[in-house]
Amino acid sequence: MKRNALSALKEKAFAYLWIGEIFIQISTNLFNFFLILFVYKITESNIAVSGAVLSFTIPAILFGSIAGVYVDHWNKKKVMIFATVIRAILVLLMIVYLNNIVMIYLISLLISILVQFFIPAEVPIIPLTVTRKNLLSANALFGVALFGSVLLAYILSGPLLLLLGDEKLLFVLAVMLLIGAFFVFLIKIKNPTQLIRKKDNKKFNFLNDFRHTLFLVSKAGAVSKSLFLLALSQVLVLVVATLAPGYASQVLNIRVEEFPALFAAPAALGMVFGAIFVGDKYHSRPKKGIIRTGIILSGIAMSLLPYGSEIASRDIVTTINSYLPQAYSIDILSIMGMLAFLLGISNAFVFVPANTILQERTKDEVRGKIYGFLNSIIGAVSLLPVIVAGGLSDAIGVSVVITGIGFSLVAFGILTIFVKKI
User: Fold this and answer.
1) How confident is the model over 163-173, as pLDDT tens digits?
2) Domains of the chain by start residue, with CATH
3) CA–CA distance from 39 to each of 30, 32, 33, 71 (Å)?
4) What is the pTM assigned to this prediction?
């Protein structure tokens, strides 16, 4: 039977996980966008937005690897449920402190700490819910859930904020987390003992487990490369999120509230399209080539983002517009939307194959530690770029910073062609 991007949904355990992920990820992305918008609205500062982003990235540095080690010794399904329910309670608590920016940062910090325990249980459980032949399909669908939730969250964020207001929106987000936890509860694993690291005669020692993780990462080239590439793709998302409000107001000259539908929505749609495309067409293709293509496409799209007005003013574009209805004419916003869509596709080209390689090359009992280590990498690597990107955008302009990031990505992608170790 021919495999396609939807094959994994035929397995009930994965279907429940996938539905639960959709609710949890939509809530998570809506919350993150709410936090960024809310902080920018009351401060009008990119540095303040950097602080908001750091409030949900710093915990990854401090707790990512620690959480991964412990999760491998716990029931992963129970960890996912517990972490999600407590996050729902904290989201409700934020309603009380909407006028206190310090408490907002603190609650966001606590939520992010719980996320560090959720992720090492979330992704490693995927191979336990599907057969190996459907693993690429499962990761593609996981990418669709992850990126599709971004799409829905950013499309709905503006209307929901206007319709519900801050307090009611946070209440809805908490309810969505609880619904997601319920679907995770429904998951049945054929061999439940796989949810917990196999017992041995040695007493659990955190430092030994952590050293073992570092050994695995350093010795397994495919694993370390996949971790690096996944970290790179996530850091890029965080940096773009940090620059988004300034890009909207300074380059596009639009209200920050309009930005989600115009940029984040097409980017998330591109991620969904890219994930489905990889899952449907690239089961037997080399994964390294897909990843390299994604990196280079990301760089090209980033490099062009600040220059939509210049592209729109070109003679060829003006000629094309003369044949198009005014409602469909090519302008700075439509060009930005197309580039955002390309960014989404390229991100999926890295995310899906890199995750699949990582899961194929690791065992069930160590996968939690590996993904916990990944969270730490993302947090540590993103710390400086997020701070620097926010500060530089205030000092020299968002356009220069975005262009520099784009050129760096293209150069790195080309370098991987000639340097085989990368």
Assistant:
1) 887 788 899 99
2) 13-188+221-418 (1.20.1250.20)
3) 14, 11, 10, 33
4) 0.63
